[in-house]
Design goal:
By secondary structure, the chain is of the alpha+beta class. It has one domain (9-278): Double-stranded beta-helix, CATH 3.60.130. Helix content is 21%, strand content 28%. The chain contains seven helices and 18 strands. Strand 4 and strand 5 (81-88) form a beta hairpin. Bound molecules: succinic acid (SIN).
Length: 284
């Protein structure tokens, strides 16, 4: 068994996330990489700056966290690397090389699947001088901040998630789904309060975009509740804002966070990110 080394870290925000210092992922030994994985699991999110990673190295790295997951919109994966999804506003020969503004709006990745992805990794290839920050919201801190009475009211509620609804109503990248995409992405239900399998800690786990209702609650009451909880969880005390530099790797645990991209001046700047996912379990 590989022993994880203790790495030099500093918190991204008090009680949430860790920046790992002085690690060059492309050249790190097995013990250091085990330390990176261990830090991720203890902190909910990690940041490593100044990395220089080829696509296959990114795939090998994310595989340390779980089996790399495929992507739904296959036209935006990196040629020759189906596990690497490209987020970009660049066009080559008049064709977009990636999905533009794909992650804008608070959400948790793959929430429309029975087994949403465990973690998301973004690697910054090119970044604007301003804007395009990625924000992470800590669902455990938000849950712990609720009164016991409120926790009791919410625990046990379930949310209905629909990829078809999401793609028909989203602000960016709206799309009529092919029959194949409809068939491969049936609606699912997930708990509003998610339990972390590592240690049983609970997280508020709403989302926007894919959620159509709170199961058993009439709309608009159900969706108003979801909006209220997203607003609470994404308020300043629970949010880390990441300002990108080229070579940054930011990873977060989707089982206890929400995240959103933010807009930037896409007439002035290019932004290209490589996104990878590791498979997850059925939420409970
Ligand atoms: C995402 O939600 O997957 C990407 C977020 C971002 O582009 O900052």
């Amino acid at each position: 068994m590989t022993t994880a080394v203790q790495l030099k870290t500093r918190e991204l925000k008090p009680g949430f996330g860790a920046e790992i210092l002085d690690v060059d992922l492309a050249r790190a030994d097995a013990e250091t990489l085990a330390g990176v994985v261990d830090t991720f699991h203890r902190h909910g999110a990690i940041l490593l700056r100044g990395q220089d990673m080829m696509p296959q190295q990114l795939v090998d790295f994310v595989a340390l966290f779980g089996e790399p997951e495929d992507h739904t919109q296959k036209q935006f994966t990196l040629p020759g690397h189906p596990k690497v999804f490209v987020l970009s506003n660049r066009e080559v020969d008049g064709k977009p090389i990636g999905a533009h503004n794909d992650g804008v709006g608070w959400h948790t990745d793959y929430s429309y699947k029975a087994k949403p992805v465990m973690c998301t990794m973004l690697y910054a290839v090119e970044v604007p001088d301003e804007g395009s920050d990625t924000l992470l919201a800590d669902g455990c801190a938000a849950w712990n901040a609720l009164s016991p009475e409120r926790q009791k009211e919410l625990d046990g509620l379930r949310l209905h998630h629909s990829y078809q609804h999401f793609m028909a109503t989203r602000e960016f990248g709206r799309q009529e789904l092919s029959e194949e995409l409809k068939r491969d992405n049936p609606d699912v239900e997930h708990p509003l309060i998610r339990t972390h399998p590592a240690d049983g800690r609970k997280a508020l786990w709403p989302s926007t975009g894919t959620v159509t209702e709170v199961v058993g609650m009439e709309n608009p009451k159900g969706l108003e509740l979801v909006d209220e909880l997203v607003e609470f969880m994404t308020s300043e005390p629970f949010v880390f804002r990441h300002k990108w530099q080229v070579g940054d790797i930011l990873m977060w645990d989707n089982r206890c966070t929400l995240h959103t991209g933010t807009l930037y001046d896409d007439t002035k700047y290019f932004r290209t990110m490589h996104r990878l996912w590791a498979k997850g379990d059925a939420p409970y």
